[in-house]
Every structure is written in structure tokens, then in C-alpha cells.
Model the fold of this input.
Amino acid sequence: MSKQINVALIGNPNTGKTSVFNALTGLNQKVGNYPGITVDKKEGICKLSRNTKAHIIDLPGTYSLNASSIDENVVIELLLNKNDKDYPDVAVIVSDVENLKRNLLLFTQIKDLHIPSILVINMADRMERKGISLNIELLEKQLNTKIALVSTRKKQGIDELKSLIENYKKLSVKPCLNTATIDIDYFQKLKKAFPDQDLYKLWLVICQDVNFGKITRKELDFSNFKTKSASELKRLQQKETIKRYQFINAVLKEGQNIDKEKAKDFRTRLDRILTHKVYGYLIFFVILLTIFQAIYDWASIPMEFIDQSFASLANWTKATLPSGVLTDLLAEGIISGIGGIVIFIPQIAFLFLFISILEESGYMSRVVFLMDKIMRRFGLSGKSIVPLISGTACAIPAIMATRNIESWKERLITILVTPFTTCSARLPVYIIIIPLVIPDGRFLGLSYQALTLMLLYVIGFSMAVLSAFILDLVMKQNRKTFFVIEMPGYKIPLFKNVAFTVIEKTKTFIFEAGKIILAISIVLWVLASYGPGENFNSAESIVKTNHTELNEVELENEIAAFKLEHSYIGIIGKSIEPVIKPLGYDWKIGIGLVASFAAREVFVGTLATIYSVGSASDEEEGENTIKNRMAAEVHSNGDKVFTLASGISLLLFYAFAMQCMSTLAIVKRETNSWKWPLIQLFGMSTIAYIVAFIAYQFLK
Amino acid sequence: MHTSVADLKKGERGIIIDSSSDSIPLKLLEMGCLPGNEVQLLHLAPFSDPLYLVINGCHVAIRKETATLILIDKLNE
Done:
């Protein structure tokens, strides 16, 4: 019978906690969600010895046990709930050798909850360079703990940490601070009211309830106990913090020695350049250009390949398998659908690669610092820049990334405008429409098509900023603004960490979006393959009587087109045609719009499905890529469907419309009301319709 | 009348004497923005806002409006 130890990894942000987690668990990790909230729950298994395993949870980074966001709240919820199945047998507190003083604050708090605790001092390889020396033995004695000096970069100290975890029962659970000394009077009353409870735990619950006010604990009933006001509590929390620092300072005075001369280093020099008034912005701009270049240019090579491969696969399936309904469903519905998902992989991977490198290296905080004042003019925060950049991958993680914006108004505005930034789901639409309607040719060495794409990004971003500005004027400020951002030391990103992030995010996106896309693809195929009434069922005979002059191939195409027009989806498309005609769209595009209401990336797949259903494809020459099919599409009078006017109108519609159910769901969850997602949905759709209308009427 | 962190010039240091305003977020206090600790201004963003500080050995950026609430004694070097 093997033994399992529950371990919680806790630490400040930027301490390399995730590196320690990766070093302990390797590939034995998975990312899930805490029930009911969108906070990532990372857990993994680490083998300690022949019959002992550790189940490790990587908790969200937090500076203390006084939570100010739902991410941080997860940590406290777990540590206060002994009945939770993940309640730790031992807490591993990860600290960073350069910020030991601040990191110890959290350590002493956890210690005071009587949880066996191990202190990891990470990035120990930097100690000498920073002129830091530590008296580990003394520190262990004064803090009543065991210390593991770890360097994930040099792969040192992990085995020592494992053996400490395995022998957690030997750890002392003596607290660091006598809680009652924070406010003797108050804590005496507290003790009288709840004689069997742990004082520090009580105190945390009280602070928590005031700040979060939603937790109900049946073992604690505060109805008979008069708690203090939020402002009084904050004063007590401040007193607590001062007490803790007094303790920490006393400990470190003896246990730590810093040679300040050595500490001056390349961080200072790098900061001077990266936060410079001119070079700082210039470097940021160059980095942005590189990211976009990667997404458009480098990613297009594998994307082309994926597109071709799936087209060939669909044709091959049709040719090889016996013909019938199932083969059609497979080739036209499922394979096209999956192709529409897989094609996203290169771009998403590139984007998350860059974002995780920027985050890991510590550069992102400098951008926040540089942009704060500018963003504030538009009612945003410097911290909005991270969601707005992440939004070019996907609005969902971007909206979740707004959680560290302290001011509710700035955060709400960021959430509302982020979906305007060009997410990767819009890219396939752009990439398919642009070559259809924008002529070849170059301007200053840049192709018109690339410029159009760039322009669409600029338009999306400008609309985000403009609407933020308007929202800022309209909305009343109801809370004070706070802004605190840590400027971490520069680090060369660890390959392992970056790789894990890229794989994890890409996987999540593909599977989450994939499920929706695949389901919609199948539904669409069914709707396009069946229809009600006489017209659909006897399509063949109707077409034959009306078009006696056609040869066999033309006849077959005509029948297929006639069938589509009278299928269920054709009827839906036709019925909305009057609304979208002023924008320059026909009913087939209408079907695409309807289908992509749930997720815009469905558009291309939908058109692919529709056009492959709508033409007898096995008679055509060459591969049936979606592009070729769309380029050949004509109105009944012989005019092309995709002209400059209708193309631009369509591009603009997609640039502004809120077509993503997942985003709406996230906004609902993050703002805790249906009001904001609905405002988003109607506001953005209206803007999209009006802009597309104007564009088409002008260019027509 | 005491000076505040917002009055520091680039590179200057001070000792915090009061940071008890209700408008100072707890997070900043937890990072060590407490009476007796040292604060140094490292860089200023364009338009002199936000401020990039080292408080108690911790590198952090805050807005000017918050900086004016942290009262200090300037250290003359």
C-alpha cells in the first residue's frame, strides 16, 4: 500500500514557484479548474520514494493571506478548510533569495495556522552574484522550520526538498507570532466568544468575510459577535503586518547578510534602457512587430500545409470509402470541421510562446510601467496592456488576466473593450477573405494584403481604446483606484516553463473551441443535407424539367445548389437575407454569420461545409481548398459574391461584432452579472452592422 | 509639513514615517511600505507617473496619487 502526502506549493508571484512545481512533477501534471470559478488549478504527482508519492497543488501566487482577488482567495479557502480533500499535510512555501524579507511575511502567516511548513529559498544560484549570504542553520532555528536551498535553473536542491517533504512529520508546527499581541483587547473578546477555535484562523476568517463576504462556515457563527468595520479591520491588518515585519527583520538581521556593492547589477542597467522615455517605447514597438510578423508570416507556412492536408484527406475519404450518408458526414462535416480547428495551432502556439517569454523574463511589468499613464487617459490601467496583447490570441484568457487590475472601473472597462482586439479566431476569416478581395501589389515593399491585415489589427485596437475612452466618460467612478505592480528581476526564461505554458494553453484552446466548432460543423452539415417539403425531396426532377439544356456535370451542380437552397439551413439563410443585403452579403454568407454567432472561427468551416455540399466536388479538378471554392462563388446574375465592397464590409463586420459565446460566458462570470455581457453583445453588434453598412454602400 | 515619496528625485532615498492612509492598498504595506523602512526612487515613467521604487528592498511601481500619501523623511547623501 503506497502512501500519499498532500503538498501545497505556496508563494509570492515571481518567485519561480511554477519552476519548482515543474521540477517536482515533470510531465505528471494537469491543469483543471476550481469548481465554479475560472482559476486554474494545477496539480501533479511526485514520486518521493518506492512507496511514497506526493500529490502537489500549485496554488495561485499571493503576497499574503489577505486576499484581494479570487485567485488569491483560493489559497485562503484551502488553508482554512481542514475538510477539503486537498488540505495540505505539508505546505511548501517558495521564496526568492533576493526578496526573502517580503516572502517571509506569507511564510509566517502560514506557519501561524499550525500547518507543517518547509521554506524553499529559490534561485539560490544567484546568491553569490547578488552578494547575499545566509546562515541557514540559524534561520531554521528561529523560524522553526526546515529550509531547502533550491536552484531550478541549475537543478540543485530538488532531492533535498523531496526528502524534507517525505519526512514532514518531523517538522515543528510552532507559530511565529503570538496572534493575540496584534490587539490584546480585541483578541481576548474573540477568544471568549469562540473558546475552542484557533485565534489566528478566526481572525483570517473575519477579515475574509468582510472582504469577500460569501463564505459560510457552519462551525463558526458570527451572528452573536460584533465584528469591526472594514476600516478598523484594515488598521488591525496593518498592525499585524508591522508585527510580522518586526519579527522578520529581527530574524534576518542575524541570518542574512547583503553586500550592497555587489547587488548593483545589470538589472539597473537594463531598467535604464527598457523603461527609457524613447528607447523603452521603441523596444516595445519592435517586440510587437516581431510578434505580429510571427503570427502572419511564420505561422502561415504550417497553416497552408494543414489546410491542404485536410482538403486532401476529405477528398481521399470520399474517394476511398463507400459512398453514402456516413462518408458524406465524415468528409464534409467532421473532417472539414476538425481542419478548421487544427489550423489554429501554429498561431496560438506562437502567440503564447511570445507572451510567456515576455511574462517569464520580467519584461511585461516594464511595459505596464511605461504604458500606465497613457492608458489611464483612456480610462484603462497600465495593467490593461497585458489583456489587450493577450487578446490578440484569445479574449478568454485575456479577460481572466484582468484580475490583477486593482480598480474595478479600470478592470471593467478593460473587460468590455478587450473583445475588440483581433483575436486569433478572426484570423482565419481575415486570411480567407483578404486574398479574395484585395488585389496583389506592393506599397513600399509591403504587400497590400499584409497591410490590410495589419490595418485590421490597428482598427481593432483603436476601437478598443476609443470605446474605453467613451466608457470612461459615461461611467461613474465608485471606488478608489489602486495600482501596485511588482517589478521582478530579469530572468532568462526557462525552456521547460515556456514549453509547458505553450502546450497547455494551446491544448486548452483547441479542445475548448474544438468541441464547439466540431458540434456546430455536424449540426450544419445535417441542416444543409436535409430539407422540408417538396422542393428539397424532389430537387432532382424539378431541376431536370427546368434545365433540359444542361449536360450531366452542370446538371449535378445545379441540383446540389438547388438542394442547398431548399435545405433547412438554406431557408434560414434566405430568411435573414433582407437584413444583410445592405451589407453586401448573400444568403450563404448569412448562414456563415448565423453559425458563427456562437464562435467566429466557425465561419470559415461553415462556408467550407456549405460550398462543399453545394457543389458536386468529385467532378472538379484539383484540390478543393476553401479558398478556391469561395473565389468561384457567383450571384444568380453571374456577379462575383466576394468583391472589394462586400469583402471589406465582411472584414469590418468581423472586426467589431461580438461573436463568441465563450467570451460572453467569461464576462458574465468575471463581472458577476448579465448586464455587461449583454451591453457588450448589443453594443458591438450594432457598431459592426453600422460600420459594415457604411463601408459597403460607399465602395459598392 | 513632511515630504512625500512623490517629492523624491531620481535616485534619492527617504525613510517612511507614515503610510497609514486608508487609500494606500494593503498589498503595498505587505510589500514593506511601513514606517521605518527605506524607500528609493529608481525611475520615473514619462509624465512623471508612475514611480518605480525600491521599498524595503522590494522593487515596485505605484502611481503618483498613492506616492503623495506616503510620508517620508528625505535622506541627504
Notes: The first strand of chain A starts at residue 3 and ends at 11.
